[in-house]
Design goal:
Belongs to the Gfo/Idh/MocA family. GO terms for molecular function: nucleotide binding. By secondary structure, the protein is of the alpha/beta class. The chain has two domains: 134 residues, NAD(P)-binding Rossmann-like Domain (Rossmann fold); 176 residues, Dihydrodipicolinate Reductase, domain 2 (2-Layer Sandwich), CATH 3.30.360.10. It is 32% helix and 27% strand. It has nine helices and 15 strands. The strands form two sheets. Strands 14-13-12-11-7-10-9-8-15 form a nine-stranded mixed beta sheet. α3 links the parallel β4 and β5. α3 packs parallel to α4 and α5 runs parallel beside α6.
């Protein structure tokens, strides 16, 4: 069978990573890349370089990847949908839930495979975590707390930390729990002199009753990507920066020091760091999208799911702006 003809729109930092992986994946042939600035980093290889999504479509595509700034996702996505091209759009899906709804309608009405690049769902630590939670290894789940912080990335200009970074945590939390958000309350800060927020603290709940919290910023000198799930039997800690998963088990040995024991709800038990396969998440994401386009059984993050994530992100911004808790179920 001939390889699928793939096109890539956008050759910024993320686009260059997409180009590298698309060149390496079996059953895919990167035939075209589009960027108004051209291929300044020389990543196109044998692919034809054009300057627009229209010219990219004219090359004849079996699938496309959109990695341009978020403000251009709607226009590019709608053109690809009209052309009948299955498309993966980088997260966030669009700048607003209204724009997301237009993309969802365009691709679903055309019956096209569609996806959003929420790459954390392909992180080995989170894949293992989700499977273990689904298998009941933690028992009753109480809380999910995430921390995602680091220096400001100069490549981001059109959205704030909520839609660029916090959308990772919103999506992965709903996914590992298999439960959508029911409410959020948030506070933001603007410390770097930019138009958009560069820090957010979120607390909320899911429809399953789990308490969630997210701390996200572009103001920290160290890079941190942690997801902690606490439950009846202990706590899982997923370090998605390194793909590590650790389980901190509740202790079964009584604490002999009575003054300490009286202050502890649980005691410290064994700590297990799991040995898990660590494949590159971006490669896994593209293989899954390829398989979905080929009609194989594959899990992708649909645009409808991406729209739900943007809706929660908007609720967080509304909560911070209006200083109130936002009910997402209503």
């Amino acid at each position: 069978m001939a390889a699928l003809r793939a096109g890539l729109l956008g050759l910024g930092m993320m686009g260059r990573n997409h180009a590298r992986v698309l060149h390496e994946i079996d059953e895919l042939d990167l035939v075209g890349v589009a960027d108004p600035a051209g291929d300044v980093h020389r990543v196109a290889g044998t692919a034809t370089v054009v300057d627009s999504v229209d010219a990219l479509i004219e090359l004849g595509l079996d699938l496309a990847v959109v990695a341009v700034p978020t403000a251009h996702h709607l226009d590019a996505g709608l053109k690809l949908a009209v052309a009948g091209v299955p498309t993966l759009i980088e997260k966030p899906l669009a700048t607003s839930s209204d724009e997301c709804a237009q993309l969802v309608a365009a691709f679903e009405d055309a019956g096209l495979v569609n996806a959003v690049g929420h790459i954390e769902r392909c992180n080995p630590a989170l894949l293992s975590l989700r499977a273990r939670l689904a298998g009941g290894e933690l028992g009753d789940i109480y809380q999910v707390a995430t921390r995602r912080q680091g220096p400001f990335p100069n490549r981001i200009a059109d959205v704030g930390v909520v839609k660029d970074l916090a959308t990772h945590d919103i999506d992965l939390t709903a996914w590992v729990l298999q439960s959508p958000y029911s409410s959020v309350s948030a506070s933001t800060a603007h410390k770097s002199g930019r138009e958009h927020e560069d820090l957010i603290s979120v607390t909320g709940t899911t429809t399953s009753g789990v308490v969630v919290s997210h701390l996200v910023n572009w103001l920290s000198p160290m890079k941190e990507r942690l997801t902690v799930v606490t439950g009846e039997r202990g706590a899982f800690v997923a370090d998605t920066l390194h793909g590590d998963l650790t389980f901190h088990e509740n202790g079964v040995t009584p604490t002999e020091w009575s003054q300490v024991a009286s202050f502890r709800g649980v005691s410290e038990g064994d700590i297990t760091r799991f040995a898990i396969p660590k494949r590159e998440p971006l490669r896994v994401q593209h293989e899954n999208f390829r398989d979905a386009v080929l009609g194989r059984d594959a899990e992708v993050v649909t645009m409808r799911e991406g729209m739900a994530t943007v809706r929660v992100a908007e609720a967080c911004l509304t909560s911070a702006r209006e200083r109130r808790t936002v009910d997402l179920e209503s």
